[in-house]
């Protein structure tokens, strides 16, 4: 399988702000690729250049063997785009919106109605788009991006306004799409979303990609601690220090006593032998630790 998207040394500045500052990456056909980063990292600017909606200052982009800029009509039917800022045609209902999108692509109205059902908006079909809630509007814009069955789907923070249930449903939908052979590229603030969905993520900050790879590989590459927590009162700090390794850090916040350790097996064995497992929780490193390690800053989306 070849690369479907090839981005090379992309740059875009607005005045003094280097929104995209030398970004290179490629996405394979059928891959689920995520761009992860905090506000202002340059995710949307990067994505919009790749989608052909924005012109780069320099660098090259190839999508399905084509240059997206200047506006390339060959790509329009093959890519689906969901923008971060949702906008719809005025005064149309949800059904009319998606049918309008479908007709632009020569897709049958029936497919449009099915897609509306897929994102759980059947019962809102007759509601004007401006009367949908934030999450419902978000789902409608995702449905509109998918209605013509594109080869590549670009989604800019698709789960931003969704409640937890709708978010899970969206994850299932995106997984199904990807399993059906679609290439999916999304941006997200959510580390758990990237970990759960993406084959590969690029961690972006201040216009640059700091690292990319499969989430599990990025996490495993860290020399990070495992946090083992017990209910406060199960064991004293002094006692915990006895059974932990010398470098471990112990903290009791009145609710949980947490041992941050690089030798979790040793600590867990000692706790189990003493039957001190009340409220036990074990947390390994996550992509948040990867971000912290790369930037020296806590990840705050
Ligand atoms: N049209 C514009 N004019 C001026 N500055 C812009 C414009 N678009 C983006 N920027 C700036 O470029 C930087 C990157 O913005 P971008 O929207 O790409 O970030 P992002 O990672 O998508 O952030 P968010 O998570 O908030 O959506 C920011 O500092 C932003 O203020
Ligand atoms: Mg953005």
What's the Cα radius of gyration? 23 Å
Strand proportion: 25-35%
CATH topology value of the largest domain? Rossmann fold
Mean pLDDT value: 92
Span of the ends, CA to CA: 34 Å
Tell me which CATH architecture of the largest domain applies here: 3-Layer(aba) Sandwich
Q: Helix and strand string, N-terminal first? A: EEEHEHEHHHEHEHEEHEHEEHEH
Count of the separate structural domains: 2
Distinct ligands, ions and cofactors found in the model: adenosine-5'-triphosphate, magnesium ion
Query: What is the helical fraction, as a range of percent?
Result: 25-40%
- Across the major sheet, the strand order is 5-6-7-3-8-9
Structural class: alpha/beta
CATH superfamily of the largest domain: P-loop containing nucleotide triphosphate hydrolases
In short:
By secondary structure, the chain is α/β, with parallel strands linked by helices. Helices cover 34% and strands 27% of the residues.
What does this structure look like?
By secondary structure, this protein is α/β, with parallel strands linked by helices. The chain has two domains: 3-216, 3-Layer(aba) Sandwich (Rossmann fold), CATH 3.40.50.300; 226-284, Alpha-Beta Plaits (2-Layer Sandwich), CATH 3.30.70. The protein is built from eleven helices and 13 strands. The protein has helices spanning 43-51, 73-76, 94-104, 109-118, 134-146, 164-179, 191-197, 215-220, 237-243, 264-273, 287-295; strands at residues 3-14, 17-28, 32-36, 58-63, 79-82, 152-156, 183-188, 200-205, 208-213, 226-231, 249-252, 256-261, 281-283. The strands form three sheets. It has a six-stranded mixed beta sheet with strand order 5-6-7-3-8-9, with helices on both faces. Strands 11-12-10-13 form a four-stranded antiparallel beta sheet, covered by helices on one side. A three-stranded antiparallel beta sheet has the order 2-1-4, covered by helices on one side. Helix 6 (164-179) links the parallel strand 6 (152-156) and strand 7. Helix 3 packs across helix 4 and helix 4 packs across helix 5 (134-146). The longest helix has 16 residues, at 164-179. It is globular and about 70 Å long. The structure holds adenosine-5'-triphosphate and magnesium ion. Magnesium ion binds next to helix 1.
